[in-house]
Amino acid sequence: MGQVAVFESVKAMRAAVAGWHAAGEKVALVPTMGALHQGHIALVTEAQKHAKHVIVSIFVNPTQFAPHEDFKKYPRTFEGDRAQLEAVGADAIFFPPVEEMYPPGFATRILLLGPAAVGLDDRFRPTHFEGVATVCCKLFTQSRADLAVFGEKDYQQLKVVTRMAADLDLGIEIVPLATFREPDGLAMSSRNRYLSPEERALAPLLHRVMQALAARLRNRDDLFRAVGEAQSEIITAGFELDYLEARHAETLAPVTSLADGPIRILVAARLGATRLIDNIAV
């Protein structure tokens, strides 16, 4: 594969995209914070199915981290990321400095309701989705891409971004991709590298509990009892549970039965200092 171009400015990225669009070629964006793994590479491969050219943004976005979270220690592995993207044939990396994204005087945020205000991750990270929506809106308009690919692992994020793009008429298609997992079921995440060997051995329990809960719900078991017992199993195993809930798959609103619509099981839990999230369909 050829060498991937690296753009550090919006101007340079837009010039390349303008040339591709002038040739009648579609452009896809894959937004990331770097520390790429096979799940990210799957997003790039999916983007290549939909567009002639793929730009991967690598930007550790400070506005989506709360003061107590891991912004400073978030893994930054640009050279390794670039090698992976060259191997898979990505066209370009957008790698802006913070000053390019948030210049002096920057004073705009996006007010979110809908799937961003349903008492899931927003309850524990109240400013997170505001930061995600703001940076994604900027990336979409900066790149002028035709579509953007997001993984389902960050399911609430996917719904927030999809809603925002539609509500603000941003003219970009949001393409979802199923969660990529390790052989033992653990959802791939850049934060998995923080797990100790003992924590890594325990982490796949989250997926197993969700699978068992989904099976119970498909068999018409009592929703509240099944969810409560699954929550207890996770806590007893040694996790610090933020939430395990069954929600409407599109709106993320609470549900009381399978009759309420398509259901998604979502979980967030901590092992030591590492926060893990996951979700599956019922």
From TrEMBL:
Gene3D superfamilies per the UniProt record, alphabetical: HUPs, Pantoate-beta-alanine ligase, C-terminal domain
Gene Ontology molecular function terms on file: ligase activity
Pathway entry: Cofactor biosynthesis; (R)-pantothenate biosynthesis; (R)-pantothenate from (R)-pantoate and beta-alanine: step 1/1
Binding residues for ATP: 33-40, 151-154, 188-191
Active-site residues (renumbered): H40 (proton donor)
Annotated catalysed reactions: (R)-pantoate + beta-alanine + ATP = (R)-pantothenate + AMP + diphosphate + H(+)
Main location: cytoplasm
Residues reported in the UniProt entry to bind beta-alanine: Q64
InterPro entries recorded: Cyt_trans-like (IPR004821), Pantoate_ligase (IPR003721), Pantoate_ligase_C (IPR042176), Rossmann-like_a/b/a_fold (IPR014729)
Other facts: The reaction proceeds by a bi uni uni bi ping pong mechanism.
Job description of the protein: Catalyzes the condensation of pantoate with beta-alanine in an ATP-dependent reaction via a pantoyl-adenylate intermediate.
Name by which UniProt lists this protein: Pantothenate synthetase
Native source organism of the sequence: Bosea rubneri
